[in-house]
Protein: 6-phosphogluconolactonase
Amino acid sequence: MTPPQLVVHRDKELMAQAAAARLITKIVDAQASRGHASVVLTGGRNGNGLLAALAAAPARDAVDWSRLDLWWGDERFLPEGDPERNVTQAREALLDAVPLDPARVHAMPASDGPYGDDADTAAAAYAAELAEAAEPEDHGPVPAFDVLMLGVGPDTHVASLFPELPAVRETERTVVGVHGAPKPPPVRISLTLPAIRAAREVWLLAAGEDKAEAAAIALSGAGEIQAPAAGAYGRGRTLWLLDAAAASRLPRALYPPASA
Ligand SMILES: O=C1O[C@H](COP(=O)(O)O)[C@@H](O)[C@H](O)[C@H]1O
Structure:
């Protein structure tokens, strides 16, 4: 387990801009060293805020968008094009504005797609797609993503891993169907903690007063079943990107010097 590093920004706008700049650098560096890069996107307010900031950043043109694989950490299992789907929101915030290779945009299945409304079969299909993309040097059934981003819910959920639900207890499968999520919609698809931990870097995004309690709990030694964000870490780095409001209830010992 890589211990979390914390960066606290003044407010959520600055946090989104700084995280977008950080992501551009990571992608450009990965493309320079390996020829391609892979990023796992998150839904939610903070994830979409980052994508919108990236869309507005002039440095976005430094990325070779045709050599970037995009995956999702979770999806709301709704029909294609539904405004609540994470991929729909990501397209609106950024993806439609950059020259991605459509074959490298790995959206999770929709509820009116080839697997119909069977979220478990759709999840298994996504797991198979990940396994096919994994290289031998990744040493596992999912690619070693360069960056995997996760929004942190006010209840400490990450991706669609909610406290105490079966999905957060999964130790074998890399992608699961989620049923009975406390946040709508109730049916979702999610990467599991083992898949999340395959990433080189995991970035947790938390901005706003409503995330303060969740950040304090997850960073104070809570168990991952009760606080899924506590179980999200990367192979090489675990980075919490917060704004001052979300960091306001962290124990003093954890509170780092303000970054900006
Ligand atoms: O429903 C979801 O919620 C989380 C957190 O969203 P936020 O709006 O509270 O920041 C998000 O990370 C996840 O991808 C999404 O499906």
The helical segments are 12-34, 44-56, 86-93, 119-133, 193-196, 212-218.
